[in-house]
Amino acid sequence: MRIGQLARRSGVSVRALRYYEEQRLLESTRTPGGQRDYPDEAMERVQLIQDLFAAGLSSRTVVELLPCVSTGVATPAMLDQLIIERDRIAARIQDLTRAKTKLGRVIENVTAANVAQD
């Protein structure tokens, strides 16, 4: 698929897809006319990259870890890094869950106060 089609289907800008290629996160072939051509699996790869970025991983870290996603094989150092990132994400989820709970209580209190005023 062409870069515009991948951008539309993935919801990621053409500029971001080019950046992913520059960072060696995504690969394409070129048509005889020089246009980028992505395999169907690129969609899944872009979604994974987006998820990893959303989880706070840097492009450098993603570049280091993506090979084991593709091959299912990791060096001991890669495995250690995967575990570190997983644990960091888990801690972040706990922090966000706590913040969500606190905000829920604030909303309940504000709602109850507003009802009491009526």
Automatic annotation (TrEMBL):
Alphabetical keyword list: DNA-binding
Gene Ontology MF terms: DNA binding; DNA-binding transcription factor activity
Gene3D superfamilies associated with the record: 1.10.1660.10
Keyword DNA-binding: yes
Superkingdom, natural source: Bacteria
Chain ranges of the HTH merR-type domain: 1-68
CDD domains according to UniProt: HTH_MerR-like_sg3
InterPro entries documented for this protein: DNA-bd_dom_put_sf (IPR009061), MerR-type_HTH_dom (IPR000551), MerR_fam (IPR047057)
Protein's name in the database: MerR family transcriptional regulator
Organism expressing this protein natively: Streptomyces resistomycificus
